[in-house]
Amino acid sequence: MDNKPVKIGDCVAVERNKTMWEGNIIQINSKSLTLKLKSGYNVGITLDKNTKIKKINAEKIGKHKPVEFKLKFDKTKPLVSILSAGGTIASSIDYSTGAISASYSASQLVSSVPELVNFANIKTKKVLEEMSENMIPKHWKQLANSVFKELKESNGVVVTHGTDTLSYTSSMLSFMLKNLNKPVVITFAQKSSDRGSSDASMNLICSAITATKNIAGVVAVGHGTMSDDYCLINPGTKVRKMHSSQRDSFRPINCSPIGKVWVDGKIKFLGKHKKKEDLKEDCYLDDKIEEKVAIVKFYPGFNPELLDVYIDKGYKGIIIEGTGLGHIAECLFPKIKRAIKEDITVCMTTQTIYGKVNPYVYSNLRILSDLGVIYLEDMLTETAYTKLMWVLGHTQNKEEVREMMLKNMCGEFNLKIQPNQFLY
Ligand code: GLU
User: Fold this and answer.
1) Which of 105, 174, 192, 399 fits a 20 to 30 Å CA distance from 200?
2) What is the third-level CATH fold of 79-285?
């Protein structure tokens, strides 16, 4: 061990008290260093007279580069298209900094999960390379268009996506792909695919299996537990990321999952779900949306003048995420009145996430519904947001907007919520 000066980014072998580690330095000071190991995990090592450090060839621990491989078509199996949109699932670690960035194409991703070919012929395409927080409505249109094209020849489509805003995309795709008569599966990973601990391959395999089944609609598929037991199939308009980092973070909200799927191909549906034969008309793409829609979260101390900003900026729709049954402070009522007078659609969802809003329990809520605020039952805020964009892209007629917002178009309402669906 040479103990020459080392710096962040160097590939090193470190020995201390008969233990050896190899990795890239991602932090170093006079007392300790942190190594990013090949497995993707970090280890902190004390620097003292017993610590020996040796620089090693940078090539030895480089960026994980999956090889692309040619796939043979198997006539006996269905065709599944995998489209990549970005996110952690399509990311790799830059070992010099420990940071991860979206960089893999769908075909590179697939080449690192060869089990996929046991279930389907796989076609891949990179549509976007975005971390999902950077996605804007233009990306939803791009994705919806690409998915629609693939649906013409595939049994189903899988979209690999960042977790953070996945539910916005899954609900928007639900509204844009009308009469969807095949499965469109959105999947993700909480740990990038080049890490030993990644959840990417299991999520991808379970998604591809789901995409070969008779399911009509957009669903989100990913880990159902913290271990590699099975994946949940959740409805695209009623799913939410409920944990910032755990692999089983996606939960169905106000409903049950559609089913469970295992990597060996087993699938269990947990109730009735929409099938191809339930759709009488052909699927078509309708991506007209009104982008001037906002989500406003109410909180104690909310300054009512903030609502003027949206009104003055020409917004056409506002989703208010109220408290409990759909409350906001009474000092906001005049601003709501102004917004509705200026033809802005105002809808109410709840920040409790679970349960429904209900304007008939408290008298002050009746005032809001009498003003014209549309109470959206158990609809998730992000689904309300994408739906209002889609609806306002089709009509500005107040009565039509109300009717469409309250119509169950893609399973966004559950009229019979069961107690056991809480915190599923
Ligand atoms: N924030 C990034 C995204 O949503 C990474 C999170 C993830 O993919 O899990 O794309």
Assistant:
1) 174
2) Rossmann fold (3.40.50)
Architecture field, domain 11-57? Roll (2.30)
- Give the model's pLDDT for residue 362: 85
pLDDT at 103: 55
CATH 2.30.30.520 positions along the chain are 11-57
Give me the residues of the chain with pLDDT under 50, please: 60-61, 95
Annotated active-site residue 164? The verdict is: yes
Chain-wide mean pLDDT for the chain?
A: 90
φ and ψ at 375, to 5 degrees?
Answer: -85, 120
Give the C-alpha distances (Å, rounded to integers) separating 333 from 63, 149, 371, 401, 408. 56, 46, 9, 21, 28
For the Cβ of 244 lying below 6 angstroms from any atom of ligand 1, the answer is no
**Total residue length of the chain:** 424
| pTM of the full structure | 0.84
Q: What is the pLDDT of residues 112-134, one digit of tens each?
A: 788 899 999 999 898 998 999 99
Annotated active-site residue 74? The verdict is no
Burial, 266: exposed, middle or buried (Cβ in 10 Å; 0-12, 13-18, 19+)?
A: exposed
Q: What is the pLDDT of residue 95?
A: 47
Q: Which two structure tokens, joined as six digits, stand for 279?
A: 């759709």
User: Nearest 10 degrees: CA dihedral of 404, 408, 411, 413?
Assistant: 100
Give the span between the Cα atoms of 184 and 174, in whole angstroms: 9
Q: What is the CATH number assigned to the segment(s) 293-405? A: 3.40.50.40
How far apart, in whole angstroms, are the C-alpha atoms of residue 306 and residue 318? 12
CA distance to 160, 236, 366, 387, per residue, from 410 (Å): 21, 9, 28, 10
Q: Which of 38, 88, 316, 383 is catalytic?
A: 88
User: What contacts 87, CB < 8 A, 6 or more positions away?
Assistant: 102, 130, 131, 132, 160, 161, 162, 163, 164, 166, 188, 189
Say if ligand 1 is within 6 A of residue 108 CB: no
CA distance 133 to 339: 28
What is the per-residue pLDDT for 193? 66
163 part of the active site: yes
Locate CATH 3.40.50.40 in the chain. Answer: 293-405
**What integer pLDDT is reported at residue 181 of this predicted model?**
97
Least Cα distance to 66 among 124, 131, 150, 120 occurs for 124
The pLDDT assigned to 101 comes to 56
Options 54, 94, 164, 352, the catalytic residue: 164
Ligand 1 contacts CB of residue 163 (under 6 A): yes
Residues of the chain with CATH 3.40.50.1170: 79-285
